[in-house]
Amino acid sequence: MHELSVAGAVLETVERHADGRPVTLVKVRVGRLRQVVPESLRFYWEIVARDTICDGARLELEHVAAELACTECGRRWAPELPMFRCAGCGSTGVEVRAGDQLEVEYIEVEQKEAECIAPG
User: Which of 3, 14, 55, 91 could be bridged to 72 by S-S, CB 3.0 to 4.6 A?
Assistant: First the structure.
């Protein structure tokens, strides 16, 4: 059900930036540590986008791998499981360098045709 709130947040962001124009594509970067199930997010996207400017818009997801870094020894690694202990020195001083983002990277909107305003 986490994906429902994510889909709603994406919709709010897109609507703010679309300026009322119909949206055809939404590209979202999702970090692995966000634990978003892509199929569920797409399912809920279709539901929350219904009867909005995003109705029928394709949701494109880019998955970002997790990367952690030890603050003690500087070692970096991509964890298979979210383990927050450095395998090099055993320190628990670990920073997330990538994989926790959830961001709308860009949207594509339909352009309105320009009206001719020249005197006839």
Answer: 91
pTM, full prediction: 0.78
pLDDT > 90 fraction of the chain, expressed in percent and rounded: 67
| DSSP 8-state code for residue 120 | -
Q: What is the 3-state secondary structure (H, E, C) of 34-90?
A: HCCCHHHHHHHHHHHHCCCCCCCCEEEEEEECCEEEECCCCCEECCCCCCCCCCCCC
Share of the chain above pLDDT 70, in %: 92
Q: How far apart are CA 44 and CA 38, in angstroms?
A: 10
